[in-house]
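Write out the 3D structure for:
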Amino acid sequence: MAAAMAAGLLASPVAAAEVKAAAKAPAGKEADAKGPVIAVLDVQLVMRRAAAAKGISTAMEARRKAFEEEIATEREALKAEEQKLRKQGAILSPEAMNERRRVLENKISDLRRKAEQRRGILNRAFTGATRKLRSEMAKVLAEVMSERKITLTLARKAVLVFDQRLSVTEEVLKRLDKNMPNVAVDFKNSGAK
């Protein structure tokens, strides 16, 4: 019953892992006698403040800047090529001008495609690293739930008002930082440079 209730209230991958972990965690007899033991976890706060999350952000920003600089350099080269082509417009035959314009347009399309690929690389890298962090957070939460005999953990965003004593956020954050101080961000597992 508690697992079904939690599944309805928590609609995220971490929530699903939390529910599975809670279902596996042994709930003591005293928890059954008293009713459900509830906790609240601020997932967004953990995902912002965890040391590994900060490392992910730093790596992502560095790679994003490098990609932007690379694209900007190529864009400037294409602008220079376009200006050169305009200047040559008076001396080139219409056929030669059309051919060079077509080549330039192909280069511009290739650059757009390359920029889109770079965004895809960043998105996949971020998603992969974040998935690892969320998975570890779910494991840490399962440990806390087992130790405290918690039967249900709600995401902070699903709770309007609660007693702060129900919060396990700081404990989960502390343990997560200990267990996973950083996450490797894989930019290479995308098929592009």
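The chain is about 70% helix and 5% strand.
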